[in-house]
Amino acid sequence: MAALVIHEIDEEIVEALEGVAEQNGTSPKIEHRRILEAALKPAEPQKKCFVEFLASMPNIGKDEDFGC
Question: pTM here?
């Protein structure tokens, strides 16, 4: 696995990263990795259950409107 070193980071950013790490009970290194992964890895498509899929369909009329 590769290593990444970043120079010239604003101290406020470093402190914010340390604060997030402390809140999550992790290290700044782990939080930095999570942030990079969230920003750069493609998101996996969210799967919908059948009921959610049906609910997402627009209401385009009644059956009678279509000759059923």
Answer: 0.58
Evaluate whether 21 touches 30 at the Cβ level (below 8 Å): yes
State the Cα–Cα distance between residues 63 and 68, nearest whole angstrom.
6
Within a domain: 37: yes
44 vs 47: CA distance, rounded Å = 9
Residue that has been written with the tokens 């998101």 in this structure? 43
Alpha helices (runs of H) in 1-68, residue ranges in sequence order: 11-24, 28-40, 50-56
pLDDT digit string (tens) for 20-68? Answer: 999 999 999 999 999 999 999 887 777 888 998 888 888 887 878 777 6
Structural domain including 51 reads 11-66
